[in-house]
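Dicarboxylate/amino acid:cation symporter, pasting as requested.
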Amino acid sequence: MSSSPEALARPRFGLLPRIAVAIVLGILLGLVLPEAAARVFTTFNGVFSAFLGFLIPLIIVGLVAPAIGELGRGAGRMLAATAGIAYLSTILCGFFALAVSLLLLPRLLSGSEVGPLENPEDSAIAPFFSLEIPPVLDVMTALVLSFCLGIGLTLVPRGALHESFDQFRTIVVRIIEAVIIPLLPLYIFGMFLGLTMNGQIMTVIGTFFVVVVIVLAMTLIVLLLQYAVAGAAMGRNPLRMLWTMAPAYMTALGTSSSAATIPVTAECAKRNGVPEAIADFVIPLCATIHLAGSTLKITTFAVAIMVVTGMPLSVPVLIGFVLMLGVVMIAAPGVPGGAIMAAAGILSSMLGFGEAAVGLMIASYIAIDSFGTATNVTGDGAIAAVMTRLSRGRIDPLPAAGTHEVHGI
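Structure tokens follow.
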């Protein structure tokens, strides 16, 4: 029985509203729900966490290896230059977030420590049963294997091996889209239910509010810095260039999708004088590999959780985390919450996050997902401007911004 056109056109209840409802219900029901009922959700969270732990190494191999393989083909030097600039932008944003977080968060969150976050399945709310699903690989093994396979894919002609990895990536992305993402609200509901019943929820809420304000302020500073560089590269007013990118920012804010924003981002970049050939190459590529805003958010929330849970803040470890996060972000799938799912492995392996901390990271990331996406795509326009400068003399620039019509924005 096929769906009617009206049913197909009916707006879907998006992931962010579902996450918000899950958090509110988890807090409210945590105050009144009897322990017997809470055990149902504790059991689900234990099974889901075990499945997620099993899946994370497969996510890393399925996303990182083919992504590295693809970066070795195509437009040669221009591809390498764009990828290098995107990675540099991403890790610089991560280091900026790390520096601000280490400077401000220990002071702003002092007195908010809750100790190690308890996993609901480890608390007094015992599950009905537990299920262990050992992963095929540990996370670091998966990362090293992905690098080796990805580099190997760049050295051999495209054939059955490349197609196999492409299909494996499709399987991984479909599991994320069809299983992990739909079940996240229920998992986060169980997390906040447990936090409420364990008496930790008020500190978590206070931490969320403080960190969100800091993240939004940092994204604005990052965009101003990116367009200062872009303006210098193009010889144009950086604030005017940033304003020209406003339609792309607002589109990403509404869709939470870099891919869906590609046409608008490309048109805005062209209005800033980026040649069509460069815009049509750089913007789609950067929509996949340039996740500066996402890196900024993940780094900041990770430090915040480490502060409130009393984990040691080792600067060398955090620097290594940012460098590795920049690589993982290149392979993050373009689905809501895809970046944090790709980062879950190194949060556990490099920073020592437990299941409850990873769940809290997922909730905090998705809560302001659209702002990170908007920062990502707006920064793509700055990279396109820098690539225009690097390609000067080989590609003719477009007329100055505002001298031609741009439709559909």
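Note for the archive: The mean pLDDT is 78.
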